Amino acid sequence: MTPELLARLGTPDGATALAAAADLADAPPLTAASALRARGLDPDLAAAALTQAVLRRQARTKFGADANVMFFTRPGLEQATRSVVSRRRAGRLAEGGVTRLADLGCGVGADALAAARAGIRVHAVDADPLTAAVASANVRALGLAGLVTVSCADAGTVDLSEVDGVFCDPARRRGGSRVFDPRAFSPSWDFVAAVPHRVPRTVLKLAPGIDHGLIPAGAEAEWVSVDGDLVEAAFWCGPLAGAPRRATLLRSDPPSASRPDPPSASRRWSDSPAITGSGDATAPVGPVRRYLYDPDPAVVRSHLVAEFASIVDGTLADPRIAYVYADSATPTGFARCFEVTEAMPLSVKRLRSVLRERGVGRLTVKKRGSALEPDELRRSLRLAGPEEATIVLTRVDDAPTVLFATPVPAA
Ligand SMILES: C[S@@+](CC[C@H](N)C(=O)[O-])C[C@H]1O[C@@H](n2cnc3c(N)ncnc32)[C@H](O)[C@@H]1O
Predict the structure, then answer these.
(1) Are residues 246 and 346 in the same domain?
(2) pLDDT of residue 120
(3) 234 part of a folded domain
(4) Would you say 405 and 391 are in contact if contact means Cβ atoms under 8 Å apart?
(5) Residues enclosing ligand 1, CB less than 6 A?
């Protein structure tokens, strides 16, 4: 798509094409394209409308009903923050005193739109002309033009003297592939890391695998999961920082949700389940106990396993492995719980004969601290029989160990 085609999608002809394409989003692409052309639609407009129809459908998991009126590029959609996360962030920014926000590298505008809905004035900037045009179209589509201005510019040229907050979610992709080296981020890490010195109320969004060594001094580093999937890290700088580390667990919006409530309504950002701490506490170490807790990845990545262990009165069986063991099954949303029924030193030969004896034909393999690949292991175990089992491959006091475990249903 080009900015010109995007502009045409905003005309009455474009609206007709989009409405027709929405009904054809599931059809094979060639059938859909010829059906639109048969209605007399210009082929370029028809193709652009079909692309939007497909992207809008895919975007519903991130944006709910808003996706039906928004515009996307494929990379823009892939990189966009899902609304359950951006909404909560916006509430926290507003409560933290941000009234005028610069969004440096706004993409299709997910974070800028959420901030505006929280009542914040936003100057959203993207260096890519099509992406900036898409963000602008989304601002109009969602009726937020009174609160958001969008410019196509390099983040480095933006005057930050007029804002009291900055959000920056640098691009971590190049030529379609992910980049992990912060030096390859765009805007560059050097630029990004300097922003909190210019505007103290700054939030940096990063990939969850970001190096803890890059956390700015005094900032809060938060890891966020949605439905148990780790989705991002965010560094909250200056007065926005709370505890040094935070693990936040969110649930995705129900599929039927239309426009969500603004964050200032009944739910506050701080209502979301979270564990906070220093990030450098160590949990006590002891033997394998009756229950094993597998903490949410946000807890593990934020180095808050010790804080979680104290919630369930738990211990580790190896100081380097983030499985927590306890004598009772405490209901918790921060981990999945398993009852350990047996522990044995890891020997594939012995495991094969035990599983044979028990007639186990279906085996769930969980692992932490083991180099064995579950699929390869299952093949070499030559499973046969009607029974099912779950095993955990891990280390106990550094010794490779297999635990037989039964999932404890969540409370
Ligand atoms: C990860 S995306 C932002 C996604 C956005 N937060 C959202 O949820 O929709 C990063 C964006 O930064 C833009 N970008 C990269 N380098 C930039 C620069 N130097 N100045 C401004 N924008 C830039 C890219 O075009 C891309 O759209």
Answers:
(1) no
(2) 98
(3) yes
(4) yes
(5) 79-81, 104-111, 125-128, 131, 154-155, 169, 171, 186-187
Cβ atoms within 10 Å of 163's Cβ, excluding its own:
23
pLDDT at 263: 45
> What's the structural domain count of the chain?
3
Structure tokens at 105: 């590298």
Chain mean pLDDT for the chain: 94
CA of 105 to the centre of ligand 1 (A): 3
By DSSP bridging, strand 291-295 and strand 324-326 are antiparallel
Domain end residue (candidates: 276, 300, 317): 276
- In tens, the pLDDT along 339-388 reads 999 999 999 999 999 999 999 999 999 999 999 999 999 999 999 999 99
The helix or strand, by DSSP H or E, that contains position 367, with its residue range, turns out to be: strand 360-367
Mutation probe of ligand 1 site: the residue of 122, 126, 192 with most atoms within 8 A of C-beta: 126
Tell me how far the alpha carbon of residue 101 is from its chain's centroid.
22
Count of residues making up the chain: 411
Tokens 């999961």 appear where? 225
49 in the same domain as 89: no
The domain in which residue 349 lies consists of 291-407
Cβ(293)–Cβ(323) below 8 Å: yes
Give, using CA atoms, the residue closest to atom 9 of ligand 1.
80
Structure confidence by residue, pLDDT tens digits, 197-232: 999 999 999 999 999 999 999 999 999 999 999 999
Amino acid at 54: V
Residues 86 and 21 both lie in one domain: no
Q: Report residues of the chain scoring pLDDT below 70.
A: 255-266, 411
Chain centre distance of CA 186: 19
Determine the Cα–Cα distance for residues 67 and 354; give it in Å rounded to an integer: 52
366, β-bridge pairs: 392
CA of 219 to the centre of ligand 1 (A): 22
Q: How far is the CA of 402 from the centre of ligand 1 (A)?
A: 45
What is the 8-class DSSP label of residue 70? -
* Distance, CA of 81 to CA of 314 (rounded, Å): 34
Question: 368 and 321 in one domain?
Answer: yes
